[in-house]
Amino acid sequence: MTKHMQTHGNTWEIGGKTLTSRLLIGSALYPSPTNMEDAIRTSESQIVTVALRRQSAGNKTGGEFWSIIQSLGIEVLPNTAGCHSAKEAITTAKMAREIFGTHWIKLEVIGDQYNLQPDPFETVKAAEILIKDGFEVFPYTTDDLVVAKRLADVGCKIIMPWGSMIGSGKGLMNPDNLKTIREEFSDLKLVIDAGIGKPSHAAEAMELGYDGVLLNSAIALAHDPVKMANAFKYAVQSGRLAYEAGLMQKREFASASTPTIGTPFWHQFKD
Catalytic residue among 3, 87, 94, 106, which? Predict the structure, then answer.
């Protein structure tokens, strides 16, 4: 067993909550509110992210959205999507805490509007202030080990590095970096956030030993979001099972799966 392997059985813990699903799901971009609800229910996810700044609760559509989210009966993870400074993110987080009655916050502080890469300096700054204010911070970051260390230093118990750029669907651009982060932070909860485009990407992330996967676009923008949600549900489960079982190590040379030394087992049955 590697130093970071943890066996949770059918449950795991994050942010003080014990859950069974390791798939975290977004609530944006679906063709309709009904489609969103069906996909989330099918995924069996127990954590749904919502963007306070991008969803108006005051109009008819917003009211329907909030009603559906509440009816799901699962954990709500508000996020600070759309924020470009620590000050903006902190204000949004405090509003979300009042509206949802939760101290959880997915911290996003965007530094580049083109690739939506997070600003590491503002993210760490906001995380430190929010943690001191009693928040459980789920920070979105890149696969940079030093930034992850800074987030851990200010008290983050959860870190969410990207697989690749938000909405790109490219999967895990730097699996070696992600593996290093997993090995470095054996006591923290790590969730891959952003860039997951297909179920095999999610399975790969889980096979690296990550505790969960957060995604949105790959399900919401699929031709059949409900069916895709089902596919991701099983991909996350199978990836985690494979990790816990112990993956076969790569070899430089071929190794026959059937022994070639000695007498074939069927020889004993010959006359």
Answer: 106
